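@channel anyone free to eyeball this complex?
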Amino acid sequence: MKINFYPLDFDYQVKDGQTYVYLFGRTEQGERLCVVQAYKPYFYVQINDIDKEELTKKLSKLLIENKLEPAKVTSWEEVEKELLGKIQKLLKIYVNYPKAVPLISRELSSWGIECYEKDILFVHRYLRDQKILPMTLVQVEGELQKEGGLRVPLFIATKIEQVSHESIPKLKMLGIDIETYAKDKIIDLEKNPILMLAFYGVDEKGEEFRKVITWKRFTHKLDYLEVVSDEAELINRFKQVIIDYQPDILTGYFSDGFDLPYIKHRADKYHIELDIGLDYSSLQTGGKADFKEGEASITGILHLDVCKFIRYIFGKNLKTDSYTLDAVAEELIGHKKHVVNLDNLAHVWDDGLKELNDYCEYNLHDAHLVLQLCQKLLYDMIEFTKIVGLPTYDVIRMRFSRLVENYILKRAIEYNVLAPNKPVHEEVDQRMEETFQGAFVYEPIPGLYKDIIVFDFRSLYPSIITAHNIGPESFHCDCCKNVKEARVPTQDEYWFCNKEKKFIPTVLEQLISIRADLKKQIKEAKARKENTTILEARSWGIKTLANSFYGYLGFFGARWYCIECARSTTAYARNYILTTISKAEEVGFKVIYSDTDSLFVLLGEQGMEKALKFQKEINSHLPGQMELELESYYPRGIFVAAKGASDKGAKKRYALISKEGKLKITGFEMVRRNSSLIAKEVQEQVLRMVLEDKTKEAFDYAQKMIVELKAGKISLDKLIIKTQITKELKEYSSIAPHVAIAWQMIKKGERIAPGSVVQYVICKGSGLVRDRAKLPTEVKDYDAEYYLNNQVLPAISSIFAVLGYSEEELTKRSSQIGLGKFF
DNA sequence: ATCGAGTATAA
DNA sequence: GTTGCTACTCGAT
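replying in thread with the prediction:
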């Protein structure tokens, strides 16, 4: 019997001495199914200089006692694989169950034998070896079982084959959110019950499902509200709704760290078994609901904590710097905040007030937001799944380094490459000591410039890695020691193989080519007015992955760590940009700025043709996938001086205006979080006017704003300064204003953990700035002097300095008018 | 005046 | 994931 099937969630189990992989998902016809296939766990040992006969004799006798079943070696075979460019003789050792791998390999290591790939997760190994991509269509051959002991039919497969790379078209998704009792903001999962729990679902047909469960009787007209007798009943209903609704995906926002662990903890209290897994297993939670890293999983139901994916991967795409549900939902789906004061929930609950209606609505709204966010990001999550070839559950919980590593691990099978081991503790410490030089940044001359052309190298680091064959396998190869072209500029002792393209640069090169092809496809599809969401998600995923290779090579925890590779990549980059600067100057361009991969030149008297000719000339000499692009033309741009050195330009701080009048602001307060809105606003306006060649207007505007500021007319929200708390409060050696505010908030019962962003306003008074920092809710008089001297003036004086105005001139009128008005 | 700690952003 | 001879502010000396 053959069935076409989309695998979504994975698990494994050991039965009667055999290990079975469980693939939960849907058939092409949309029926839920669990496909089971036997697979054997294994790892490798290196036997280059080891007597095979003697070793295998010992292996066959090896038995390590373990709780349920002793670990033992079941069979072995001799194989050859490439480790960092060198062929190795290996023994592939099969063991009786997955957890026997670490037990046996530890024993073998103690014999002095080198073990490899002993920490690869069994399900990951299976998926990579079988070349199965989760979320895409596979064909399974085998038999449907009458009694499987699962909540879904069981199919025992003898063969599995990928049939299409198209991902599953429709999924049934359920968003959840809970509200808990929290008086004085104290979150205590032992004492405080769950008050309400909201579901927002959508099925394959697009039909919606809404439900809020609570256990307080009060007057309401909410058709989705279900009132039960107590918290235990609420938890029972939670369980039943999930069992009945049968979602493919359960989603929440921070549900790994809060909602699901909280539910689990409360269920344990009432001795309720949350056996909602499709194999009747319980909801699994790691860590406690105390805002530390944990994971929550349900066998057979794909649990996606959208917050993790956003924090680790997707957040870099967003403008928002706060990853609260409200901020992220507003940016991604345009939803405004639902206004209720959660601090009052405990009080309203105790008194059984009718305001509970608002909280139920709020609860449902959040579940809806979570669902919409998950739907919005689903394509990106699925495309990452397909690129990396691992379960979506794992992929969305990975950071860049693990995404890269797992992608490389997948490709390693095709190239018969053996994975190097992860560094052990001492090795990590040693690696963390090693540093290397980064990019080149040109020191600009402060000034207002006209007609600027910006060139940049497209994907500079990835293209250097591929063009120069940079990777641990090709580093210091035996064949190119005397090949001049293989040497790295400014790193005399380094060379990379010039004869054969090696593993890491090869897979990266393919990634870049695939992306180039995708971009072409997107362009064509757009011309045909087709939807390009999936193609764009794939393109973004590949780009993100490719850009992370350089960082990965220099990351201390990497299997394929190669600091020489990272160092060589930046050395080549500096060499290319410096050469390009010289060539630009040779052909008569005035270079005004450059940072890492970009080149700013003045167009001058020469026409655009000359710029294009220069670009073509450079490109004709670039190797491989390297390419210099003409990014854009800007009619005007401004570079300001570094503080305290009027002739030296500040690096990484400039502003440009496009032909269409769009501002491109880099590095200024304007784009920084820890600067007040008033400073940002004034700076943006001033930059705009200056770049629009309206200097006088800019000056008058700035003077006017200074007068308003001094007169106390600026509204509170524009004065708020936001700063992130990055470590435990007690660990701060100096108490800056943001730390002082954090302590104030703690006293009021707020939770401040590393990562929290605090807000404050500097008020009038005497003493240190930190003693005058107040919470926005407690501000009476803001300190106009502080905002003038520490926020607004620093933001604009460097700009006016370029135009020849001094700070005194800016504040002159304000002191006259300001005083006159006041007294 | 000068320096270290802390924060944030560019690429 | 990386480095930047970044760039700024605050607080301490």
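from a first look: Residues 321, 438-439, 441, 460-461, 595-598, 651-653, 666-667, 671-675, 723-724, 726-727, 732-734, 736, 738-739 of chain A lie near DNA strand B (CB under 10 Å from a C1').
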